[in-house]
Amino acid sequence: MPHRPAVLSCLLAAVCVGASIAVTPFIAEFPVLAGQAGRYLVAAVVLGLALPRLEPGGPHRPLARSELGRIALAAATGSAGFNVLLVAASRQAEPAVIGAVVGASPVVLAVLGAPRGAGRWPRPRPRVVLGATAASAGVVVVHGGGASTATGLLLAVGVLACEVAFTLAVAPVLRDVGPARVSAWNCALAALMLAGASAAVGEHLRPPTGSEATTLAYQGLVMTALAFVLWYRGVARLGADRAGTTMAAAPVAATLTAAVVGTGSLRPATALGAALAAVGVLVAVRADARVSDAAPPPASATADGRTARPA
């Protein structure tokens, strides 16, 4: 399989995210904004300290304004916004409905994240779209049915948009800035945004319980610090369209983890949905990769921190 390390990197990131979703009920009573701000702060510190080891040959220059803007957009949507909307949606819709809507992300990324053609419009690859459709269908089968209000559906669509933006916003700069550096900046900016929102709404802060502290630590270290780097490394190699199909592994991992920790149960349809998602991922990632994927060739830095691309 072409780009096998990149595929495995994205799959591991998806599994980390899925497992985190399954343990989220353990922090349901903890202040949402403050808890998530703490999670991203922990991840930002860990990634900042580990950056020289993660990317020893990475660029040692200030971020260009366009690069910082893209990372800030990903932090505001895919990090901070995703969590806020997810909590709001969970109050209006059952998890199965939210999961089914967000499960459309492989198809959206297969279209919007495709390599650019003439006029810079995406040129979706038929095999990627086919695989992404199968993967999304598998997600729907895994989640099954559920009830929701109209508001809940709209919020779930917002969650979907945030998840897609998390990848598309930074895909063009991943090779120039580096996956670990993008992840560190994303976490730091998301922590600031969420802390500011917590202060603005006047959240009542309290120390976390033992289970809450453990869950937040897992989210900060595994779902965020580790998963972000794994995901962005895979996207840099595969392109946003093919990488997007691997997110179908997240709901499967969430279902299995929930059954293990006691926050959910398995159904016969889980195996069928998992198999369908796996087939979809396999079809998509084996698509022709001769077209340039996630980003143009690496840029060379100029003296003032801006980038100049080779002709």
UniProtKB/TrEMBL annotation:
Bilayer topology annotation: Multi-pass membrane protein
Domain EamA: 151-285
Recorded GO CC terms: membrane
UniProt record similarity statement: Belongs to the EamA transporter family.
Key words, A-Z: Membrane, Transmembrane, Transmembrane helix
Originating species: Actinotalea fermentans
Chain ranges passing through the membrane: 71-90, 96-115, 183-201, 213-232, 244-262, 268-285
UniProt main location, coarse: membrane
Subcellular location: Membrane
Classification of source organism: Bacteria, Bacillati, Actinomycetota, Actinomycetes, Micrococcales
The keyword Cytoplasm is assigned to this record: no
InterPro entries listed in its UniProt record: AA-Vitamin_Transporters, EamA_dom, EmrE-like
Name under which the protein is recorded: EamA domain-containing protein
